Amino acid sequence: xxxxxxxxxxxxxxxxxxxxxxxxxxxxxxxxxxxxxxxxxxxxxxxxxxxxxxxxxxxxxxxxxxxxxxxxxxxxxxxxxxxxxxxxxxxxxxxxxxxxxxxxxxxxxxxxxxxxxxxxxxxxxxxxxxxxxxxxxxxxxxxxxxxxxxxxxxxxxxxxxxxxxxxxxxxxxxxxxxxxxxxxxxxxxxxxxxxxxxxxxxxxxxxxxxxxxxxxxxxxxxxxxxxxxxxxxxxxxxxxxxxxxxxxxxxxxxxxxxxxxxxxxxxxxxxxxxxxxxxxxxxxxxxxxxxxxxxxxxxxxxxxxxxxxxxxxxxxxxxxxxxxxxxxxxxxxxxxxxxxxxxxxxxxxxxxxxxxxxxxxxxxxxxxxxxxxxxxxxxxxxxxxxxxxxxxxxxxxxxxxxxxxxxxxxxxxxxxxxxxxxxxxxxxxxxxxxxxxxxxxxxxxxxxxxxxxxxxxxxxxxxxxxxxxxxxxxxxxxxxxxxxxxxxxxxxxxxxxxxxxxxxxxxxxxxxxxxxxxxxxxxxxxxxxxxxxxxxxxxxxxxxxxxxxxxxxxxxxxxxxxxxxxxxxxxxxxxxxxxxxxxxxxxxxxxxxxxxxxxxxxxxxxxxxxxxxxxxxxxxxxxxxxxxxxxxxxxxxxxxxxxxxxxxxxxxxxxxxxxxxxxxxxxxxxxxxxxxxxxxxxxxxxxxxxxxxxxxxxxxxxxxxxxxxxxxxxxxxxxxxxxxxxxx
Length: 728
Fold this sequence. Notes:
It is a single chain. This protein has 23 helices and 18 strands. Residues 1-29, 609-613 and 703-728 have low confidence and may be disordered. The chain folds into 4 domains: 31-141, no CATH class; 169-240, no CATH class; 249-552, P-loop containing nucleotide triphosphate hydrolases (Rossmann fold, 3-Layer(aba) Sandwich); 611-717, no CATH class. It is α/β, with parallel strands linked by helices. It starts with 30 loop residues before the first helix and ends in a 29-residue tail after the last strand.
């Protein structure tokens, strides 16, 4: 706690901050000074004794009393014996001389002797005071260190006994300095094992040690061998004394970053961020159904799309992993898709594998001069040459030819920044291939139904303590190349609103997290470099013309305007029909039996900027923002009905509910888009909005009303205005 004090004007400061004493001095009355003053008083008494007719017995009595008091006082203070003797001697010498002087009348010789005794006694006693205080402080420090040493010895003996009882290790020595974590959740203890042992001697005893230390579920013990300069027999034991896995941790922020730094996905017990270096390595995430793999991939995906020098390609046949990154654009027209290529069927995955192989070959050839000029071995990741990270959801669901292609990418793509990460239900070879297992340094383990599954994911390290997995989002992770080099527990960030209490600030922020990401990150998303795009060909260039029907079409591949934003639908309609999969994969042949050559133009999604908007559109956007801010700052908030009507009116044209819903959410509307569509329909029945045949709505005062079936024409519908002449 920081203390503050009132400033005193210059010139009025207190001369000393020490309290005044009874003798108006600024120093304490010490026993040495008291003895000196007593001797001084004795000399004065001897000088005035003839006038006062003081008997010598008075000096003797005073000496006896003063000596006794001095001895009792020093004994009560716990002074050493030498101090007791010195105090008694000085008082006896002083009062002895006083008695002699009173008995024989003071002379010059007597006074000279007395003054000498007084000076010597004063010097001895005052010096003894200073020496005594210094000695006393040193004595206190000595006893403090002695007590601390006893505590350290007790702790070291406790660790030695614990490791002997649990692990059978004799002679372990704990370091006296314990590293307390800033988070307050635990500490790290450095232990030196006997010279012939290393960290392997402790593996597998995490659960037993956690039980012996009475740690809660969600807490635990983890081992680390430290850095390359640490001796082999030194082990760091991380002790988490609080349940760090309980509750949910909201995703921290959407600040753009770089793939050259670790991509954070959670928090470890020390309070530091857990992350993996995804430029230099891929990862394998293993967990049972319901363990949170998809949620983890969303969190890691959010970290990847924040990177201004990385593109994300997804092989996601269920589309669960990719949808949240693409729907802000497809449904609401916000920004651009944050995932650069979502492959949601097997043929699209085949095209992605083929394109990745071609990109790897082209980059190795055409960027060789760059590597030579910069004297580097691996291609750097930059916005103009972005890294490509391919995420594969549920690897076992992929066809064999796709798995072979993924293995090739893992083996050959490392030097040109094409990486692969995989997820699976199990860590066995029927779920992940041998190449994935042997060549993927990053490992993330979630809850499994059997501890042996994680034992296979972390071979040689033993299965993590299953008591850690108390809540969704609990993971154990490691990296064989970048660290941590042993499995370490962490809590993954939550990105879904359902993980937080309804109505809380975190709940509200998570409701629009991915739409906010589309707004904030679209402008910083890189585009594939020309060398790679040319090598990938139409498989990459026409990806969105193929993927939009896969993502927003019905079960038969039919796609219409009702399931996407109007601007997306118009853009999709403007594209030429993409080449079929058979042609792009080389399966189609002409009449002569030759493969049909793929022809056509690329279909890219433009980046919408303010430069592309006219002045009228900019005014409408400003009106929308003003209506939203006004709705947020009103003392009495507007009802959803009022806000919807104002936002439709601010558009100045008929619009679909899907266009207005993002604006409603931005203003704090917390219901689903389906509920908002129902609200629009209700407002249409109440004649507060006018509904058109094409599913659009307009405010009644917007100046533009769609043609509505069953609407009775009014005078305002006459193009020539009302008049007296009959209509013919």
